[in-house]
Amino acid sequence: MNVCGGMNSKIDEVCEMMSERRIDVLGVSETKKKGCSITTYDRYTRYWSGVNDSERSSQGVGVILSERMNASVKEFEFVSPRLLWIRLKVGLTRIFLLCAYAPDMSKPPKVREDFWDSVREIMTKCKENERIILIGDFNGWVGIRRDGYERNLGMFGDKRVNENGESLLEVCLERNLVNDIADS
């Protein structure tokens, strides 16, 4: 969910929506929160990764977990205002959750390249027995061309493609990540 800033005033509404829809994990981007922290609100624990306190509020990424999912957290890292990861063990399933907020296409190519390099570096932390889940705002359009991406990309979508979308598909292909939603 891209919250476009003002997360402090929206947190009640977001947690209420999570409760109503029975959502256990929610990635949020463009929080514009400062610093890195873990906070609890009602039955939800929030992991925030933002800019330094001395900087102007911008970027920011977070993950909100229900009590049940938060009890499964084994490890986490606030990587940057654009990336954070959480390692969970839910029953017998080990999960590596990466939440991202990619720089948009108006940012210089070097900034975008550095972001995708960071994503690749983080992915090396994944263990063989972990399921990888990528969530967030990748500011990308992946298109509908499936040649070579049949396992990574669903059948339906927008025809548009941009460099961030291509980079996302490349990461998915490199890590053998699959579209786990059945096409119907």
From TrEMBL:
Full protein name: Uncharacterized protein LOC128200809
Annotated gene: LOC128200809
